[in-house]
Design a protein that fits this description.
Length: about 475
């Protein structure tokens, strides 16, 4: 790959230190996304350690005409943090911006820098007797800046909203190197446009998030976790509504998975197990919380007993210990890992209105079977908020490359149904480079024009994460 000329290399080294300007093989880990679908080239990977250093690097790039690809933990799934083969670009890693600046337990906020690992932020909140209600499968490696820049969701979106809903304020380095300090801890502020919303979910195309104020919640005093077996997604959605009504909205997580997922997990993942005695076609992992000891479990026991009497579910079990709860959630992660052992999967991260989830799954299954007989649809996800990870595992015996060659074809089939149900082709993973070409087809002409106008207004030279989203 091309490298920075010595004079430019020295300029960046003077800002961040020579050890934090990586070139050649040292930069390689920053140029490929985790699934290997996207690789790129860059002049260097630069790792500033403070907001001032980020600003100086960005200002230098602006003067030299160098494009910037911001990168956090590089755990994204749509290629948004990996450079393209752009002639002059750098990767700007925020991993060294890793300070927790402040935790205000009384005001229930925390101020953290972009490179703080999500799990570490959650642990720090927990130590302050507060909850940061954002949990993802990648929380041990994803960073706060990346989470906010992709507007990530996760298991608790049903109760607390996605990353966008948790951000009270941001600190952002703009494309010209200026710093916008919007680190407000206010819950109410009606003085003009809510500028932070421009950068949440923008995938680094408008600026670089360097710090954020996050809203915290009281820690639950009671957590009840259950695994439920039922006949179909219709019963699952009806169960969600019934339990929310019965518990006063105490359900915070509601994860749907098919029998096929349990079969894959128990066949291929060490430690995977049958979660309940009944062998049903669909399963739900659910969780309720309360600020009152024993209240969540009581509500869940009563609600599930009624659902069993009404024939809405076939079987259910509640976790009797923290270890059993951990094992239940292990199964949720195991079904993701298990797919790779059965061959290639064509993946979708879609959302539809919650009430439309069963219709989507039925219609998508039929459409996939019609165009790809023998394919194995694998629908699972955060059904409580309408987010379905609709993955399609290859037919047995087919060459993986032959199956992956049908990605665009099957995307069109699935996305057409999503559009008919007023859904979205990206619920929590973002657009990146992977879904970029599909974006104009799912946005109205007016909406897409507004998106482009915002991009041109804030980044007129198009240097921020070129090739992502647009």
């Amino acid at each position: 790959m091309a490298e920075l000329p010595i004079i430019e290399l020295d300029e960046f080294a003077a800002i961040v230190g020579a050890n934090n300007v990586l070139t050649a093989s040292d930069a390689a880990p920053y140029l490929q996304e985790q699934r290997g679908r996207f690789t790129g080239e860059a002049l260097a990977a630069i790792r500033p350690g403070t907001t001032d250093e980020v600003a100086a690097v960005v200002a230098t790039c602006a003067r030299l005409g160098i494009s910037i690809v911001p990168q956090g933990g590089n755990t994204g799934l749509v290629g948004g943090s990996v450079p393209q083969h752009t002639p002059r670009s750098i990767v700007l890693s925020t991993r060294r911006l890793d300070r927790i600046r402040n935790i205000d337990a009384l005001g229930s906020t925390m101020t953290v820098e972009a490179g703080v690992i999500l799990q570490r932020a959650r642990e720090a909140a927990d130590q302050a007797d507060r909850l940061l209600p954002l949990t993802l499968g990648a929380e041990g490696s994803c960073t706060i800046g990346g989470v906010l820049s992709t507007n990530a969701g996760g298991h608790l979106t049903l109760a607390y909203g996605n990353a966008r809903a948790l951000a009270l304020g941001l600190e952002v380095v703009l494309p010209d190197g200026r710093v916008w300090n919007g680190l407000s801890r206010l819950r109410k502020d009606n003085t003009g446009y809510d500028l932070k919303q421009l950068f949440l979910g923008a995938e680094g195309t408008l600026g670089i998030v360097t710090a954020a104020v996050l809203a915290l919640q009281p820690k639950p005093r009671d957590v009840a976790t259950g695994f439920v077996g039922l006949r179909d997604p219709d019963a699952a959605v009806a169960l969600l509504a019934a339990l929310q009504d019965a518990s006063g909205g105490a359900i915070v997580a509601f994860e749907l998975m098919p029998r096929l997922a349990i079969d894959f997990a128990t066949a291929h993942v060490a430690g995977a197990f049958e979660p309940i005695s009944a062998r049903t076609q669909w399963y739900v992992l659910l969780e309720a919380t309360s600020g009152v000891a024993g209240a969540a479990r009581t509500a869940l026991e009563q609600g599930l007993a009624r659902a069993l009497e009404d024939g809405l579910i076939d079987d259910a079990v509640l976790a009797e210990s923290g270890e059993q709860r951990r094992r239940f959630w292990f199964m949720r992660e195991a079904i993701v890992e298990a797919q790779k052992f059965e061959g290639a999967s064509i993946k979708h991260d879609i959302s539809v209105p919650v009430a439309s989830v069963p219709d989507f799954i039925r219609r998508a299954d039929l459409a996939v079977e019609a165009v790809a007989p023998g394919a194995r649809p694998y629908a699972f996800g955060h059904v409580g908020d309408g987010n379905v990870h609709y993955n399609i595992t290859q037919p047995p015996g087919l060459a993986p490359a032959a199956w992956m060659a049908r990605w665009d074809e099957l995307n069109r089939v699935v996305h057409a149904i999503v559009a008919e149900l007023d859904g979205s082709i990206s619920a929590e993973h973002g657009i990146g480079r992977f879904k970029r070409d599909a974006l104009p087809g799912v946005k109205s002409t007016v909406e897409f024009d507004l998106l482009q106008r915002v991009k041109r207004a804030l980044d007129p030279d198009g240097r921020m994460n070129p090739g992502a989203m647009f």
